[in-house]
Amino acid sequence: MSACVPTRAADPNRTERTHPPHSPPPGGPRRFRIAGADVSASIAVFLIALPLSLGIALATGAPLQAGLVAAAVGGLVAGRLGGSPLQVSGPAAGLTVVTADLIQRYGWRTTCAITVLAGLAQLGLGCLRVARGALAVSPAIVHGMLAGIGVTIAVAQLHIVLGGTPQSSVPDNLRALPAQLADVGLAAVSVSALTLALLLLWPRLPGRAGRLLRKVPAALVAVAGASAAAALVGLRLPKVDLPSWSNHALAGLPEGPVLGLVAAVLTTTLVCSVQSLLGAVAVDKLVAGRPGLPTGVRRSDLDRELLGQGAANIVSGSLGGLPIAGVAVRTSANVHAGAVSRNSTMLHGVLVVIAALLMVPILELIPLASLAALVMAVGIQMVSLHHIRTVTRHREVWVYAVTTLGVVSLGVLQGVALGIAMAVGVALHRLTRTRITHEETEGVHHVHVRGQLTFLAVPRLSRALHLVPHGADTVVELDGSFMDHAAYETLQDWQKTHTAQGGTVEITGRHPGTRISEPQAVTGCRCRPWTPWRNHQCDRPQSAPLSRNDRSGTDRTEPDPTGTGGASGHELVRGINAFQRNTAPLVRSELARLAREGQRPSQLFLTCADSRLVTSMITSSGPGDLFVVRNVGNLVPRPGEESGDDSVAAAIEYAVDVLRVRSITVCGHSGCGAMQALLSSEPGGVQTPLKRWLRHGLPSLERMADDSLPWGSLAGRAPEDAVEQLCLTNVVQQLEHLRAHDSVARALGEGTLELHGMYFHVGEAEAYLLTETDDGVVFDRVREADLTA
């Protein structure tokens, strides 16, 4: 049992349930089924993953079997353990440059060990629940990193397309390109050109036949078509060579300088994690936009996704596979093919295993030039014009460009570091870029501040303010979202001096009438979940309209001429915001437990709908403790009456028979409007819904009028007036109505249920419990009452 999940003390009188009360009774063992949509989606993903896995392994310089190992492990391990049900993981193009560099520096076996260590690092990050921290990286940096990797892949694979051998870096490949163009291999170029042509034209086939043919993945058609053409023509080209699995190299002990290995592990962890987490966020958007979305597809759990990716990298590295990350192309195909669960991802991994064991002769017919053309096309697609337009629109093109150039010329980790430094510089530039203007219109001086008002802008602000003549009418408009203490003091000192000299100053925000002032100190705020909105001053703007009859405690506000809800709507929003900010973090874990286990309240609490009664405050209870029923007058209709409303009886039956509460409390209160209405009611007249409901309180009136029954007392004193006496009598009468219900009578007879009466004095903030003695009915203060009686 987890130490962070609160548990309830065992109760010997309570029957323990092993499933939430709302769930159906547990049946026999569930049968494992795979939806037809998952089967078809897994086939589509497999047909894409097979050639891409081989191509990425070729681009990195790893054994080609390593790509198949990573694809199978990504489907089976990450698919089963990951937090994004529809994301497909495997060898990713975004890891090509990193892996190729590691293989060249440390060799294949050490690269596998680095993959294992990166997986362990991902497990650690997942346990620390920092997955969402990766999303704080600027999108311009991420897109720039992917673009730089794409350029590196495309330039390297271009040499294989031309029939040559790639160099170790982009500058070396560019320097060697003229010599490669002078010595072009026509056979390799022909196969590569056919691959690219099929890859480009296949998705554009017209007509009904084209719609049917387009269901076959273009990558598979391109590689299969080029391989078949090369075989028919008899071209002699280097082809896929898959050695026996008995000779497959597994991970070995890492060898090399410690600092270099640490940097390699960090780089692999960073690229794998960021790409997988961003892919998980993207797949949520794809799933949300898909029509006919099944309810079983949940949003991604990023921390679990990081744990799944870490486990997959550990297994892949141990088995001699490439590093693993979420792959956008395969994930998009999985979603668009109609996958409904993680079974599609896992089944695609099974298909890769079958292909790796049984299809080796077919795979060895594929020319390496065809795979290189496929991977080069993927690298070109990673330089997205849409992303370039987006970062340009957000004025982050310099961050994108610096990251891309850094990755291309220096490496992934160095390029990302340069991108982060550039992003920080852009943010500081925006923070200090403040425009302050002064102009006079119809005798009124306007000082307009655009941007963030910090201490760096104070000299320019002071210069603009001193252009305003003494005694002039002035409007200072702050068009920004931040003002630090130095700027605030400068502005306030000038305002005091200017008004003392006979001038007027109006400080506004972006919209006319929106006043700007220093944030109020709230260190002494005693906000609680039950804090009354209308009397709460911590977040209340000074311009908010006050309620009428504020002293009387009534809740009537001035009518809202706009029809938009006015202050009440704002109070509701402020209340919700305060809950989300202050209370939700404290109760989230407990509510998550209750959501899993269902509700198991120990008490049914039946009280009045009066807004001044807050049951959680009075009883110091929390979520899941009380099953609360509220109505006008805390009335319990006697069973069998034609009330037209069985909600109270239904709640009683559900609480006693299903939830098996141990006690029921009927709580009345002082100043009850329902009791006042009963005392002042006259027989006859129009039977409104309120009058029809209040007739369930007539037995309380009759009980109070019966001279043979003594009046109840309140902590040794007589009731103050008839209203308070009726409130006390009504609690006793409703308890009698409660005993008449079959479920309550049965539970009382079995000794599994207790009934309590309670009275809450609103003005005194005092709670009293009912005690029935030989001398009559007494309501004693809780601190004096015998709670075990």
TrEMBL record:
Pfam families xrefs: Pro_CA, Sulfate_transp
Basic and acidic residues: compositionally biased ranges: 548-559
InterPro entries xref list: Carbonic_anhydrase, Carbonic_anhydrase_sf, SLC26A/SulP_dom, SLC26A/SulP_fam, STAS_dom_sf
Protein family (similarity comment): Belongs to the beta-class carbonic anhydrase family.
Topology versus the membrane: Multi-pass membrane protein
Region feature (Disordered): 1-30, 533-570
Species of the source: Streptomyces coeruleorubidus
Keywords attached to this entry: Membrane, Transmembrane, Transmembrane helix
Keyword Transmembrane helix (UniProt): yes
Name of the protein described by the UniProt record: SulP family inorganic anion transporter
Transmembrane helix is among the record's keywords: yes
Function per UniProt: Catalyzes the reversible hydration of carbon dioxide to form bicarbonate.
Compartment(s) where it occurs, according to its Swiss-Prot or TrEMBL record: Membrane
